Amino acid sequence: MADVALAQRNAKSQVREASAWSQLKHNRNWLGFWFMVPAMAFLIFFLAYPLGLGIWLSFTDTRIGRVGHFIATENYEWLWDDAIFWLSVFNTLLYTFLASAIKFAIGLYLALLLNEHMPFKALLRAAVLIPFIVPTVLSALAFWWIFDSQFSIISWSLKHLGLISQNINFLGDTTWARVCVIFANIWRGVPFVAITLLAGLQTVSPSLYEAATLDGATRWQNFRYITYPLLTPIIAVVMTFSVLFTFTDFQLIWAMTRGGPVNATHLMATLSYQRAIIAGQLGEGAAISSAMIPFLLAAIMVSWFGLQRRKWQQGESND
Amino acid sequence: MTDLPASKVDLKTILSTPARVDNSEGMSYLQSVPRRLVTLYLPLAIIVVVLLFPFYWMALTSVKPDEQLLDLDKYNPFWTWNPTFKHFHKLLFESYYPHWLWNTMYVAVCATVLSIIASVLAAYAIVRLRYKGANLVGGLIFLAYLVPPSILFIPLATVVFQYGLFDSPMALILTYPTILIPFSTWLLMGYFKTIPFELEECALIDGASRWQILIKIVLPLAIPGLISAFIFCFTLCWNEFIYALTFLQSVSNKTVPVAIVNEFVDGDIYRWGSLMAGALAGSLPLVILYAFFVEHYVSAMTGAVKE
Q1: pLDDT, tens only, A55-104
Q2: Does the beta-carbon distance from B276 to A141 stay under 8 Å?
């Protein structure tokens, strides 16, 4: 018995005298650091560093193939007097506001429709998401063809219905071009909004509606006082993403109009591409894209408070 | 008293009629069929038709003979009776299209694999190692998700040039993970949280290292999450445009979206057929992948938003 006790004590002391190396191996901070290295390396070298570099570039007169010098806020002063820049800001805000609002309205409506019981429900849901799956540029090309000035199927159909007598110059007219790109953006964004809101709708317990209906609530009241409040947090997050990606949209515009006609569809992203890469004025382009940052910060704040509110609603303290 | 016989009859008829088979669920019995037709099926049909029409049009254009494409009066534009594969033939044998398809596939697979490896490690460390500052790092990664490529491509172009990666697929393979890692880390964190802690504790007591736990216990249990992250990242890579447009120059190195926009738009009035064939062929791989993994897609999309 004494031997056994002694052996146990020895074993204990062995454990206690674990080498510094094995202690380190089990230290969670040390381990955590190494687990984080790959992801952090990518994000620091290709995200955080370029983000800082972009802001720095916007204060220099860098061009492609030439090192720039610090010129303080000259780029911004130049942009301040640039009518095309302000037009692009206006276009971006108009595009973001209209597209996001309509996306939200149709997306929510579609989510409510898809939440009903009906035959082929799964198939319908799968079909609805296809515009989101197909690469934006490729569907934008399809729209380019649909909105062609001569062979547009929409013009053809309207002509045969007797509504118009001449082809509509969809992408050549400033107002029509704006309508077309906003439509294409809505078309592409609605599935995302609808399917994510549908996921939120499915977490709402049907017994709430049953109880409310027994108490005499109409369908509108069901929506207004049960669905909408319960969906608010997820709406906040989805719309933040939607606004963010609409605001910084590039590919749809580039594939359909390249900013034309007469800059009517130039967004800040397309203008910065044109100035920085095509014209070679990296500094000026960087200033245009840096000018988007305040707007993005505003969107992120909205998202943050949306998330906070959700935690508060669910009574969760952490995670 | 005079009412009594009538009510008796009612009761009898009610009892004698066989119970109606009720297939409806929940409160759907409150709605009649015509009402559902107007409030549900009609709007749904309109929305679905609008959402799918561009694909029908894309597919139809890609098989229509040229003369039918441009003569809308002689032929019914909504259908064709003599489809042709001329446009696809031109695409596959007279252009770099197979190259572009291969480039896109190669870049997408490499970038996705790299990002998934990095995100698995990061997500596991944040959720389970819970090192000092894990929550803060989690928040920062979420913020990284919100940084759009449109404000990064200019400085990244200079970075890519400095590293000597310009016009090589490596430029894309190394920059795409900045879009993918935040998303997939966030998604996988959600999956890892659902795996019971006790499993890991048992393994720790049995002397497994953290690495062994990750490989042998956590990853096998998180396979649905991994598939979701993988296919979603793959789709994002395939869809990416602005980096590929900025960082690649030679025609044979381009990815499908960039190449189609730049190389096929040559002012040729007969370009539409091959343009649409190219768009269709570029979308099909993703649509096929999507058809097999619908549920994973939806969970990836909603998971990233909900977490």
Answers
A1: 999 998 888 877 888 888 888 998 999 999 999 999 999 999 999 999 99
A2: yes
Q: Quote the CA–CA distance of B157 and B133 in Å, as a whole number.
A: 32
Nearest chain A Cα to B149, which residue?
A248
Residue B91, C-beta contacts closer than 8 angstroms, at least 6 positions apart: B97, B274, B277, B278, B281
Question: Which is more confident, B304 or A274?
Answer: A274
pLDDT in tens, A178-231: 999 999 999 999 999 999 999 888 888 889 988 998 998 888 898 889 888 888
Tell whether the model's pLDDT for residue B120 goes beyond 90. yes
- Comparing CA positions, the residue from A81, A95, A50 lying closest to residue A293 is A50
Contacts of B153 in chain A (CB under 8 A): 273, 289
A125 φ/ψ angles, rounded to the nearest 5 degrees = -60, -40
Question: Half-sphere exposure of residue A309, counting CA atoms within 13 Å on the CB side?
Answer: 15
User: Tokens standing for B141?
Assistant: 């990664």
Looking at the partner chain, which of A141, A272, A282 has a beta carbon nearest the beta carbon of B275?
A141
ipTM over 0.90: no
Best of B49, B78, B151, B192 to mutate (most A CBs within 10 Å, chain A): B151
Contact yes or no for B150 and A249 at CB 8 A: yes
Hunting for tokens 């200033």 — which residue is that? Answer: A287
**A264 in Cβ contact with A178 (< 8 Å):** yes
How far apart are the CA of B128 and the nearest CA of chain A, in angstroms?
9
* Beta carbons within 8 Å of B127's beta carbon, 6+ residues apart: B134, B189, B192, B193
Residues of A in contact with B154 (CB under 8 A): 54, 57, 272, 276-277, 282, 285-286, 289
Contact call for B129 and A109, based on CB within 8 A? no
B272 three-class SS: helix
Residue with tokens 């595009």: A95
Cβ–Cβ under 8 Å, residues A233 and A221: no
Q: What is the pLDDT of residues B53-63, one digit of tens each?
A: 999 999 998 88
Interchain CB distance below 8 Å, B77 and A156: yes
Q: Give residue limits of the domains in chain A.
A: 1-57, 80-313
Cβ–Cβ gap B297/A31 under 8 Å: no
- Tell me yes or no: is domain A80-313 CATH 2.70.180.10: no
Question: DSSP letter at B28?
Answer: G
CA separation for the pair A185, A136 (Å, rounded): 9
A187 CB neighbours in chain B (<8 A) are: 50-51, 54
Write out pLDDT tens, residues A4-43. Answer: 555 555 555 455 556 777 777 777 788 888 888 999 999 9
Per the rule left: phi > 0, alpha: psi between -120 and 50, beta: everything else, A224 is alpha
Beta-carbon contacts of A231 under 8 Å, excluding residues fewer than 6 positions away, are: A197, A200, A201, A204
CB contacts, 8 Å: A133 with chain B:
235, 283, 286-287, 290, 297
Cβ contacts (< 8 Å) between A249 and chain B: which residues? 150
Report the pLDDT value the prediction gives residue A185, as an integer from 0 to 100: 95
Separation between Cα atoms, residue B71 and residue B22, nearest integer Å: 54
Size of interface A-B (CB pairs under 8 A): 290
Decide if A139 and B125 are in contact by the 8 Å CB cutoff.
no
* pLDDT tens-place string over residues A240-299: 888 888 998 999 999 888 887 888 899 999 999 999 988 888 899 999 999 999 988 887
- Across the interface, which of B150, B152, B260 has its CB nearest the CB of A47? B152
